[in-house]
Every structure is written in structure tokens, then in C-alpha cells.
């Protein structure tokens, strides 16, 4: 029991750390998307189709940053939650031992009230924990979807860049770097999702 | 966990220790319960690993809600690392501990129990119908440190002073003081850093009327062994790590 709580607490802290790294990459992504928009503006009418795409990059990057921020807080909440559950389970475990050892003690039933109180607290903590984990899973999926969308847009923008003449090289290079960043974020999120498997 | 009643008149002193289930590599400790009417105080209730046997032993003597006070002579884990667990079972109790250690002792976990800091000069506390005194014992062996004295029962709980490193099945009481010296000497020389602090403590203690002295490790001193200890300790050079 305690072992699971320890693993949960560590896994949640590791997720927070992965998300912190993902957030840093998302910030670079946001800068790259702004650069892409600047090139598109310079390319003028030749890159009209890319303007929408550049805006889209920017929006997705900003959303990813704010999602990563909120997930980070959530992961730390989960870690704290696990530690509370862990401590409660230690108390419960010790009380069970005390109850067994106190076989002949006149007042041994005095601790059953505390035992049932802690058991109820544990139930409610478990319920909240399940909810937090589900929310975390959903938010991680959401970022994953963003990154997939960025990947698709990068491929499309490379195709569109063909029409921009002298700007093609820059735009393709930028789309490649955006893809690399999106893949990095995807890796952090995948690791977070696999870590999430431990607490689940 | 073995238990022995040391005094049982208007109120009761019980000493716990020599737990047969104690993990091998931790030092054996003495815990004390003083009960008076519907109030009780636990003196240095011990480490986390001792919590379950200590709670079980305590429930043989008092209902759980009669444990209204806990005393920690100083901040060490063998003294009070069980605090986070007591905090759940006696949430309305007060913890009496040197003011110096509040920020440290709270690391053991304290959401419910109220911290009642003891000032450097000591003080008194009422537990049921009795009044106990907190006697300063600073630097012996902790920089903020107290003993507990009961003038009615004439018992002094001396914390680490008088402590000895003993076999797990050692008796509770000293029979031959001279035999005890070997078990106490290095402990006092190394863990007590200040000769000046030692003399200050001896001066205070000689003014008290003591029948029994209970250290937190080792055996209790009764009758003339109390005086023998004070004489021996007075002559002992402490703080030997500084050559």
C-alpha cells in the first residue's frame, strides 16, 4: 500500500518535471511560430495561404504553454495528494498493528474511531486522486493532439512554401524546426502518459 | 513493550521500554506515561518504529482521549519522530518542547497537535491534579533541552543525562552503580559538549529532592544511586571530541 503511494508521488513529480521541459520547448515553438509569421508577411501575396497556417502555429503553441502550466500544477497536486495518502496509510497501518498488540488492553477500542475516520479520509482521497488522474490524462491527450496538428500543419506549410519563391528555403527550414520541437514535446508527453500508467 | 509502574499514589508514573519487537539497529529507549485523573502526559514518546507498541502499551493504562499532553525533551528522532502519528490519534493534545526546536520538530508532521514552546528558563505544567516542572538542561546533550521533575513523586525524568547504552534485555533498574559506569562514560563524554553546562545542571539538580531518576536510555537510578551519579558526572570531563 505504502509502496504504491510512494510510486504515485514520485511518478507525479516526474510528470511535473517532464511537463516543465515540454513547456520550455513550447515557448521556443511560440517564438518560431512568430518568426514564421514574419516571413509570411515579408513574402506578401505569394504566401497568403501560409498566413493562416502561421497564426494557427501561434495559437497552438500558446495553448500548449498554458495547458502545460496547468498540468504542471495538477501534477504537483497529485504528488502532494499521494504523499498525504501515503502518510495516512502509514498511520492506519501502525494503528492496525497497535490494535493487534493491544489484545488485552482495557482501552484498545478507543483507537477504532480514529481508524474508521482515517479509512474514510483515505476513501475520499482515493476518489479525488482518481479524478485528478483522469483530468491529467485528458489534458495530456489534449497536448498530444495539438502536437499532431502542428505536425500536419508543418507538412502542409512545406507544400505551400513551394509557391513563395525566394522564401521557400526559410519557410521549409522553419517548418522542419517546428516539427522537431513538436516531436520533442510529444516525447515528453508520451513519457508523462507512460508514467501516468504507474499511478493508475 | 515492557512496562513498570514506578509510582502509584495520587497519580501514576509508568515507564515503558525493552520492546522485544524493536528493530535490531535502533537504540533502546525509555518512554514515560504520567497519569492524573483524566489527564496524562507522555514523556519522549519515541521514534516512528516504536509508535504501534507504545500506543498498544499506553492503552492498557489510559483511554486515548486522556492523553492530553506530550513532552519532547529535545528534537531528536528517537525522542519524537512518532509525532506525525500521535498527531492523528490525539489531535487535541499539546506538545511541550523547547522553543528552540519548533521549526525543526514540526518537520515530523503536526497538523492537529498544538505546539507549546517551553522558554529557556523552564516553567511548570498542570497535568490533572499534579504540577510538573520543566528543568533546563541545555547543551546536555542538545542546545535546547529540558528535564521533567515531579516534586510530589520525587521523580526526575532526565532525558539523555544518565543514559547508558544497554543490551536490549537489560533490567530497568541499576543494581551496582560501578558496573553502570562503563555503559555511561563515553555517551556522556561525547554527547555532552560543555563542562560549564554540566555544572549548571548539577547545581540545579542538587537542590531537588529526588528518589528516582529516569534517563531516556538505559536504567533508572534509585535512592543513593542518584547522588552517586551526580558525583560521578560532576567529576567527568565532557566534550572529548575537541582534543
Number of strands of chain B: 13
Alpha-carbon distance between the termini of chain A?
A: 14 Å
Radius of gyration of chain A: 25 Å
Helicity range of chain A = over 70%
Please tell me what the overall shape of chain A is. Answer: rod-shaped
Q: Structural class given helices, strands, pairing of chain A? A: mainly alpha
Strand content of chain A: under 5%
Spatial extent as radius of gyration of chain B: 17 Å
Mean pLDDT of chain B: 95
Q: Based on Cα principal axes, name the global outline of chain B.
A: globular
The overall strand count of chain A is: 0
Order of helices and strands of chain B: EEEEHEHHEHEEEEEHHEEH
- Chain pair with largest interface: A-B, 21 and 19 residues
Strand order of the largest sheet of chain B: 1-2-3-4-5-6-7
Q: In this structure, how is the largest beta sheet of chain A organized?
A: none
Which residues of chain B sit in consecutive blocks of at least 5 with pLDDT less than 50? none
Distance between the termini of chain B: 40 Å
Element-level helix/strand string of chain A: HHHH
Assembly status:
heterodimer
Low-pLDDT runs of 5+ residues of chain A are: none
Query: How helical, in percent, are the residues of chain B?
Result: 25-40%
Structure characteristics:
heterodimer; A: 200 residues; mainly alpha; B: 243 residues; alpha/beta; seven-stranded mixed β-sheet; six-stranded mixed β-sheet; 13 strands; 26% helix; 28% strand
Describe the structure.
The complex is a heterodimer of chains A (200) and B (243). By secondary structure, chain A is mainly α. In chain A, 88% of the residues lie in helices and 0% in strands. Chain A has helices spanning 2-43, 48-101, 110-161, 168-196. The mean pLDDT of chain A is 85. In chain B, strands 1-2-3-4-5-6-7 form a seven-stranded mixed beta sheet, with helices on one face. A six-stranded mixed beta sheet of chain B has the order 8-9-10-11-12-13, covered by helices on one side. Chain B contains seven helices and 13 strands. Chain B starts with a strand and ends in an 8-residue tail after the last helix. Chain B has 243 residues and is α/β, with parallel strands linked by helices. Chain A binds chain B through residues 87-88, 90-91, 94-95, 97-102, 104-108, 110-111, 114, 118, and chain B through 1, 51-53, 55-57, 59-65, 84-85, 88-89, 109.
Amino acid at each position: 500500500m505504502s509502496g504504491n503511494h510512494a510510486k504515485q508521488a514520485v511518478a507525479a513529480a516526474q510528470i511535473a518535471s517532464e511537463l516543465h521541459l515540454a513547456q520550455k520547448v513550447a515557448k521556443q515553438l511560440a517564438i518560431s511560430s512568430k518568426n514564421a509569421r514574419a516571413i509570411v508577411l515579408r513574402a506578401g501575396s505569394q504566401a497568403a495561404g501560409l498566413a493562416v497556417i502561421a497564426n494557427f502555429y501561434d495559437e497552438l503553441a500558446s495553448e500548449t504553454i498554458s495547458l502545460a502550466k496547468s498540468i504542471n500544477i495538477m501534477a504537483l497536486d497529485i504528488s502532494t495528494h499521494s504523499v498525504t495518502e501515503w502518510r495516512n496509510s502509514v498511520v492506519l497501518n501502525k494503528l492496525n498493528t497497535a490494535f493487534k498488540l493491544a489484545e488485552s488492553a482495557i482501552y484498545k477500542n478507543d483507537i477504532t474511531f480514529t481508524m474508521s475516520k482515517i479509512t474514510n479520509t483515505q476513501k475520499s482521497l482515493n476518489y479525488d486522486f482518481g479524478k485528478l488522474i483522469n483530468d491529467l490524462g485528458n489534458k495530456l491527450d489534449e497536448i498530444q493532439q495539438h502536437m499532431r496538428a502542428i505536425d500536419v500543419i508543418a507538412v502542409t506549410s512545406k507544400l505551400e512554401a513551394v509557391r513563395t519563391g525566394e522564401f521557400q528555403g526559410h519557410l521549409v527550414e522553419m517548418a522542419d524546426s517546428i516539427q522537431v520541437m513538436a516531436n520533442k514535446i510529444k516525447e515528453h508527453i508520451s513519457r508523462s502518459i507512460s508514467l501516468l500508467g504507474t499511478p493508475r | 513493550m515492557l512496562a513498570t509502574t514506578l509510582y502509584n499514589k495520587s497519580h501514576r508514573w509508568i515507564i515503558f521500554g525493552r520492546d522485544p519487537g524493536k528493530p535490531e539497529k535502533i537504540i533502546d529507549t525509555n518512554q514515560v506515561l504520567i497519569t492524573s485523573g483524566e489527564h496524562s502526559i507522555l514523556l519522549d514518546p519515541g521514534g516512528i518504529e516504536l509508535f504501534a507498541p507504545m500506543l498498544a502499551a499506553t492503552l492498557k493504562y489510559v483511554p486515548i482521549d486522556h492523553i492530553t499532553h506530550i513532552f519532547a525533551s529535545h528534537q531528536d528522532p528517537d525522542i519524537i519522530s512518532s509525532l506525525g502519528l500521535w498527531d492523528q490519534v490525539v489531535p487535541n493534545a499539546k506538545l511541550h518542547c523547547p522553543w528552540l526546536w519548533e521549526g525543526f520538530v514540526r518537520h515530523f508532521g503536526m497538523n492537529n497537535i498544538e505546539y507549546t514552546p517551553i522558554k529557556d528558563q523552564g516553567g511548570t505544567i498542570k497535568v490533572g491534579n499534579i504540577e510538573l516542572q520543566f528543568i533546563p538542561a541545555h547543551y546536555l546533550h542538545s542546545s535546547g533541552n529540558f528535564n521533567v521533575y515531579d516534586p510530589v513523586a520525587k521523580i526526575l525524568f532526565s532525558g539523555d543525562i544518565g543514559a547508558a547504552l544497554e543490551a536490549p534485555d537489560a533490567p530497568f533498574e541499576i543494581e551496582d552503580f560501578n558496573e553502570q559506569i562503563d555503559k555511561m562514560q563515553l555517551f556522556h563524554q561525547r554527547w555532552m559538549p560543555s563542562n560549564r553546562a554540566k555544572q549548571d545542571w548539577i547545581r540545579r539538580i542538587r537542590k531537588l529532592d529526588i528518589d528516582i531518576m529516569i534517563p531516556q536510555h538505559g536504567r533508572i537510578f534509585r535512592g543513593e544511586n542518584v547522588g552517586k551519579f551526580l558525583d560521578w558526572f560532576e567529576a567527568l570531563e565532557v566534550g572529548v571530541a575537541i582534543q
